[in-house]
Design goal:
Rossmann fold; 12 strands; alpha/beta; 340 residues; six-stranded parallel β-sheet; 434 Repressor (Amino-terminal Domain); 14 helices; elongated; DNA-binding; homodimer
DNA sequence: CTGTTAGCGCATTCAG
DNA sequence: CTGAATGCGCTAACAG
């Protein structure tokens, strides 16, 4: 039913090895021979068996994308999909397939990774760095599992990661709001222990911006959400109902920004009119729902793309690659009032 | 570096075949032998090579998920994630990996599928049925590519699909609105030529409900969106700005519902107070952003799950499986007024 | 219950 | 430039 390299060799009246050379683009084939072989391949609709090839070449040409927090989280966070999208594209361009691995509990992560890598289903993995992965990474290094992490896995990590600079966006967003005249800004930040402890948080940049502007930070105006819409809603209500007069809110993620907008709506507040607001992520959902929101744009798709490119480099070269840190930017629209 | 089945056999002082039996859970192994082999496996940290196994057994234990419309669409539609999530879980439970295939253009779909299936990277595929796939399906059948489609690919398809009944939800949603006293309902429906031509649309159910209630349908109140937030916004504005007095809006998808809510907000309309509204999909985004919306809930995660289960059945049995149609339901909350 | 033989489909020697 | 032999790691088919 499926034809093999020998069928092609027979039809083209050459040896199997010659066919092999043709399909692997070896230059050591006479043009005429190549033509004959190509014709036979087309005629038989021959596709080299990836398992046989992988067995021989010890490479599966595929990469696992591992997200250690269960389907519900993965499949609902748009940021994760942006990263996955970028990774998929980089891999596809390089001839690698993307295998999704979504362990249902954190305990299963290492098991899943062992399976995928040790049985050579994949040549390497891209993994989402969250609190707790540092212990896994030690295992990976011991086991020579090739990985690239999205964000850093442990303090001082030098290689094999693509990170985004949270402190930077916190700083530029807060500075902008302060420059426009806001004085009491509420911050809805990422969860307290989501990333590894060494990673600079949005809050650090937020505080730095205040320091730079000579404005005091009120600790009670800093609250941490869990990236969900609900938590954005609750954090915003908490800030808005506190008896401190809030000037504006800076919210670091898109779903949480949506929750904040719900709180605004319920309280009859219009962002850019009654209160300053900087939203996170700048994803289509919020952008299209509330046009004109000034937002933080983090290059998540690019992060995924670079991670895909990096893991392939690593796999093919065998050499670890220095990590990279990406900078987000502030997209200024109309939700922060100018009162200078 | 990696140990093989022979290393294990040596250490356990048995033959390779016996090791093979142990790792494949054959009952034909003495308990004591099994114990010895297991110990050797653990000691050597042995994992059978998936390529070698696949080559021998002619099965890769993986399934492709093919979405023929490019990354941008795929990675942004929450309904797609829900389906992907369900499919992933079903496959994981059955020991199959999920390989993502996202051809960047419709023309590349067949090529991508050929590659994945003919070179045996995957044992079968789950594919998203959209207009145009019917020609692909003929190819698949000719090539014996095993597939299960999400929704039907061509009129009269009997096997290998998991569909959802659009007409049904259109009918129950419209009937409910009519029962509550709405008389001029705008419908924001799915794109006109998104699914195969034979598939009953929401509009058909919508019309049937009107027929059942003896209420005339005004054709100008039926508009088709493209599943995006923007199109929901534009469709809603079109309906609301028409000089027909609109009672309510029925919107079949969640992102379009979000766009509709933006239109409501801009016009100062409160759903459930100033206008009736039934939203689509009932995804977290809209549900958490606007609590209290009466919504259509389509079991998309279940659809993906069943598709994953079905493709594995098909792969393992070699027999085509009769298709299934899933019914959505109406989740009644507070966005439709009762005026009886 | 266990072992031997052979070969899945391809690519790597090493010769021509 | 081309081909013959050999084996990647595993498991069917057959013995015992």
């Amino acid at each position: 039913m499926h034809s093999t390299i020998y069928d092609v060799a027979n039809k083209a009246a050459v040896s199997a090895k010659t066919v092999s050379r043709v399909i692997n683009n070896s230059p050591l084939v006479a043009p005429e021979t190549r033509r004959k072989v190509m014709a036979a391949i087309a005629e038989l609709d021959f596709h080299p068996d990836s398992a046989a090839k992988g067995l021989r070449q010890r490479s599966r040409r595929s990469v696992g994308l591992v997200i250690p927090y269960g389907s519900d989280f993965v499949f609902q966070d748009p940021g994760m999909w942006a990263q996955a999208s970028g990774a998929h594209r980089a891999l596809a361009e390089r001839g690698y397939d993307l295998v999704l691995a979504v362990p249902q509990t954190p305990e299963l992560v290492l098991h899943e990774l062992s399976r995928l890598t040790k049985n050579r289903t994949v040549d390497g993995v891209i993994l989402y760095a969250m609190e707790g992965v540092d212990v896994l990474i030690k295992e990976f290094e011991r086991l020579h599992i090739r990985y690239v992490s999205l964000s850093t896995c442990y303090r001082g990590q030098k290689n094999n990661f693509i990170d985004t600079d949270s402190a930077h966006v916190g700083r530029i967003a807060a500075r902008y709001m302060l420059d426009q005249g806001a004085r009491r800004i509420g911050l809805i930040r990422e969860p307290m222990r989501f990333f590894e402890a060494g990673k600079a948080s949005t809050e650090q940049g937020f505080r730095q911006a205040h320091l730079d502007s000579g404005v005091d930070v009120d600790d009670s105006l800093i609250v941490a959400g869990d990236y969900s819409i609900e938590s954005g809603y609750e954090c915003a209500l908490k800030l808005l109902h506190s008896n401190h007069a809030i000037d504006g809110i800076l919210c670091v993620s898109d779903p949480m920004a949506l929750g904040t907008l719900r709180a605004f709506r319920e309280l009859g507040l219009e962002p850019g009119v009654d209160i300053d607001f900087v939203a996170g992520d700048d994803f289509p959902t919020t952008r299209a729902m509330w046009p004109g929101l000034t937002s933080i744009r983090t290059p998540l798709t690019e992060q995924g793309y670079l991670a895909g490119a990096m893991i392939v480099d690593y796999i093919q070269s065998g050499k670890e690659i220095p990590g990279r840190v990406l900078q987000g930017e502030l997209i200024v629209r109309q939700s922060v009032r100018c009162r200078k």
